[in-house]
Structure formats: C-alpha cells, structure tokens
Amino acid sequence: MLDTVYNYMHLFFGTKEFSRGVQLSLSSYLWAVKLPPQNSGGAKKLGGSRAVRKRPIGMG
C-alpha cells in the first residue's frame, strides 16, 4: 500500500528529493493511523437489530 502511495507522490511532485521528504513525514503519520476493519469479523453491521424489551420502561 505504501509503495503505491509513494509512486503517486513521485508522479505528482515530479522530483524524488521532494517526494522523499514528504514520504518520510507521511510514513510516520500512516503508521499512527488505524484504519477501520472492512467487513471483517471486527466490523459492526450498520442498522443491526437492537435488543427488544418485553416490558415498557417503568413497568414491572
């Protein structure tokens, strides 16, 4: 993934020296960022069912 980012940076900025400096600052940022799971076991489904109460609140 990082190689792809660096290749696009090189194409965008044009020079390897400039993109290398940006690469070093971005690499520390990218290591600190934790991406959310993509439909894995740890991902929660949106709109999942909630626990249904058998009695209204305050009753029984």
Short description:
Residues 51-60 have a biased composition (Basic residues). Helix 1 (2-13) runs antiparallel to helix 2.
Number of helices: 2
- List unreliable stretches of 5+ residues: none
Which structural class fits the helix and strand makeup? mainly alpha
Approximately how much beta-strand content do the residues carry? under 5%
Major beta-sheet overview: none
Distance between the termini: 56 Å
Number of strands: 0
Q: Round the Cα radius of gyration to an integer and report it.
A: 23 Å
The average pLDDT score comes to: 63
Q: Write the H/E string, N to C.
A: HH
- What spatial form do the alpha-carbon principal axes imply? rod-shaped
What percentage of residues falls in helices of 4 or more residues? 40-55%
Region (Disordered): 39-60
Biased composition (Basic residues): 51-60
Written overview of the protein:
This protein has helices at residues 2-13, 16-32. It has a domain at 2-27. It has 60 residues and is an all-alpha fold. The model has no long low-confidence stretch (mean pLDDT 63).
Topology:
Layout: H1 2-13, H2 16-32
Structural features:
single chain; 60 residues; mainly alpha; 2 helices
